[in-house]
Amino acid sequence: MVKLTFYGGINEIGGNKILLEDGERRLFLDFGFPYKRHKQFYEEYLKPRGGAGLLDPLAMGLLPPLEGLYRDDLMTPGLWHQFRKAEHYRKLDGVEGVLLSHAHLDHSGYISFLKADIPVYSTAVTAFISKAMQDSGKADFDQQVCYFTPTELKKPEGWQQEACLSGVSAKQRQFCISDVKPEALSPEAVQFWNWGFWEKRPKQKELVSCPMTGHGGCSFNLRCFPVDHSIPGACAWGIETSAGWIIYSGDLRRHGKRAEFTSRFIEQANQLNPRALILEGTNVQRPDNVFERDVYDNGVKAIKGASGLVIADFPPRDVDRLLTFLQIARDTGRKLAILPKDAYLLKTMRLLELDTPDIVRDDSIVIYQETVASKNPKVWIRNICQECGSKIVLAEDISSAQDQFILCFSFWDLNELPSIRPAPGSLYVFSSSEPHDEEQEIDFRRLHRWLDHFGLKAFGLPVEKNGDWEIPEAERGLHASGHACGPDLLEVARGIKPEVLIPVHSEHPDFYTEHLSGSGMDVVLPTVGGTIEV
Ligand SMILES: [Zn+2]
To answer: Rounded to the nearest whole angstrom, what is the distance from the C-alpha of residue 442 to the centroid of ligand 1?
Structure first.
């Protein structure tokens, strides 16, 4: 009997944490950051206390109460005493690993809490992007996917305090890569993984490095299927169990630049005659898709006639979209100005995919250095800016030649605008998704005010109409979602044809029940913390 228990991703988009148990053998499918639940309690200035370790995420229901699964150094005295009576509490030992589908934090973020000796199985690109994100991001204690510094939780005078154990180096998590033999990685790639791009990074402790390995340790027979999604390196997984093959889709689509990956996945997964398919359902209610190639056409149309600055706002880590805008920049006689973190990501991607543009050599790419931060930049920014010295542009460079650039900014970078002062005729091209919750709606209202204030013309930006947010009719087709639409998802299900279909990562899982009755597939809806036996 194989059991699947769902600790996240139920009636929500993201936060997937699925426990697969075959007798005494156990695996997790993703271990994601639960954005929806996190937002119910927290915001930027109200966060779980790093110094309280596991207490806050357990007490707030962000992490399942599974004793034995988490890092010992995050344990406060008497912690499990408080949770042994909690709903879904259990002791859980012997987890052989996490099969990570891709590097979006709603699938990977909470890996940071897991015991360091639980390995993560992923594609090489997913591992490298996860590291690049952590190297160049804020990476709070609850998002340290690739490495962390063990802490000592003390309780002096009634207060919990966080203290890095002095003299202890950052610990790296074991990643087992599924698609490249570790020995086939270039020396540069190995160095990046074990340490960083630059030999000496002052002020940063040395990593206790854990070399990547292949499939070695896992007792399950695994299959890793590359799929198309809005971040490179995404994959679906197949796990051979005593009940037959279980397939886990991760996030996927059929309308991006790597659509053929998803087609091949459907074909190959079908050949395994799977017992069960765990399938995402983010966009089940969408009747159709905007294709990535449409984004190029519509982008060129929008930008061609612009006389001032063009700002392009697209999702972070969507390398395919970045490359779409790079091509648009070339074809409209502009240069693409990217942020240092995007440059870092491209540099990382090039270690594995040689057709990724080389920032140093590509004439169409420059790096925008933030005005105020440039006085005291972080080490990685300083290093990347040194390496790409001639490529750095500052606000004044953009400001004095506005029709020469497409600037890759998002809402969070708008505070640079007072230094840039967009000229009349400047354009803000919105190539991302519409607001999904109240907080995002507030940000969208702010974004509109910023654009009004600086006289920027919005293009493709949703506008509020009677409480709904809609993109003006003539400005649609600038964003290809990372997720397949309803009809495509049904094709995935019918194409793979499992005996049991389990929807996750969806606010409308009953879509599958409605549309697949009589198909021969048994649709079973999971519940939070509930177990499905297959
Ligand atoms: Zn995703």
So the answer is: 23
Average pLDDT over residues 201-229: 72
The pLDDT of residue 199 is above 70: no
> Taking the alpha carbons of 345, 349, 355, 358 in that order, is the dihedral positive or negative?
positive
Distance between Cα 505 and ligand 1 center (Å) = 10
Angle at CA 195, nearest 5°, toward 192 and 198? 70
- Asked whether the beta carbons of 369 and 392 are under 8 A apart, the reply is yes
Between CA 157 and CA 497 the distance in angstroms is 60
Mean pLDDT across the chain: 90
Using a pLDDT cut of 70, give the percent of the chain over it.
93
Distance from Cα 461 to the centre of ligand 1, integer Å: 22
DSSP structural state of residue 169:
P
Angle between helices 124-136 and 379-387 (to 10 degrees): 110
User: In angstroms, what is the span from residue 133 Cα to ligand 1's centroid?
Assistant: 14
- Can you read off the two tokens belonging to residue 231? 């971040």
Residues above pLDDT 90, as percent of the chain:
73
372 or 322, which is more confident: 322
Beta strands, E only, 374-510: 392-393, 405-408, 427-430, 457-459, 463-465, 468-470, 500-504
Query: What is the Å distance from ligand 1's center to 229 Cα?
Result: 7
To which residue do tokens 């695996």 refer?
A: 27
Cα–Cα distance for residue pair 4/246, rounded to 1 Å = 10
Please state the pTM of the whole predicted model: 0.94
Q: Alpha-carbon distance 243 to 163, whole Å?
A: 46
Q: Residue 389: its pLDDT value, please?
A: 86
pLDDT tens for each residue of 252-263? 999 999 999 999
Mean pLDDT, to the nearest integer, of 469-492?
Answer: 94
C-alpha distances out from residue 274 to 55, 393, 501, Å: 39, 53, 10
Centroid of ligand 1 to alpha carbon of 483 (angstroms): 8
Q: How far is CA 157 from CA 49, 56, 154, 161, 197, in A?
A: 17, 19, 10, 10, 43
Strand 95-99 to 25-31 pairing: parallel
